[in-house]
């Protein structure tokens, strides 16, 4: 947790100069040296965490009126078989035309059985303090399809030094929720993960909800 606090201090110090992008560029994961298996693990973990916030925000926003902005705590109610939420808080702004904007007022901290974490805490942040375009947007389209776009930063404390990466949608993903298993996921969309020195790799969700690192 000390590394997580240090990461927050670094991001705060860089506010005003594209803090999130700067942190990732200098302290991000070394994507060029990741195996395909490791890329797949990062993509799956990232997608799972994003889906947890997207579903929570979609659920919370249903009871909100257009023009309202409210804060909600993330808790065990937002836990799935792949993501165990420790804490976090999101701020939701409900706009016209079935559109909501989400920021984190407190980063979502979570653990996962995914090998990327090694049991350590990871955080997912959509804070405006990082950069003005760090947020998540959900638009409900005809047919009750929730289209999700985002740019966020993640911090992994599992290594000896905290590692960062950002993820950004390149083609909005559709949010799917399985009522039987209570698991949110994405289908039919594309995104990118960025690490240090602007190294990138793409990931996508297919029509079955499988996450594919490219």
UniProtKB/TrEMBL annotation:
It comes from the Bacteria. It comes from Photobacterium angustum. Residues 1-19 form the signal peptide. Keywords: Signal. This is Lipoprotein.
């Amino acid at each position: 947790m000390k590394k997580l606090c240090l990461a927050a201090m670094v991001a705060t110090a860089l506010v005003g100069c594209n803090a999130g992008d700067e942190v990732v560029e200098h302290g991000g994961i070394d994507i060029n040296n990741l195996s395909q298996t490791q890329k797949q693990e990062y993509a799956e973990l990232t997608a799972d965490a994003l889906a947890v916030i997207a579903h929570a925000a979609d659920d919370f926003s249903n009871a909100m009126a257009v023009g309202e902005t409210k804060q909600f705590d993330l808790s065990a109610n937002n836990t799935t078989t792949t993501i165990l939420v420790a804490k976090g808080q999101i701020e939701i702004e409900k706009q016209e035309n079935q559109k909501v904007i989400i920021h984190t007022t407190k980063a979502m901290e979570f653990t996962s059985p995914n090998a990327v974490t090694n049991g350590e805490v990871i955080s997912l942040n959509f804070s405006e303090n990082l950069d003005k375009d760090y947020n998540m947007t959900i638009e409900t389209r005809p047919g009750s399809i929730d289209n999700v776009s985002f740019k966020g930063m993640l911090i992994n404390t599992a290594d000896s030094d905290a590692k960062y990466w950002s993820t950004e949608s390149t083609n909005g993903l559709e949010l799917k929720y399985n009522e039987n298993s209570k698991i949110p996921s994405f289908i039919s969309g594309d995104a990118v993960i960025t690490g240090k020195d602007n190294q990138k790799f793409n990931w996508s969700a297919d029509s079955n909800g499988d996450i594919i690192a490219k």
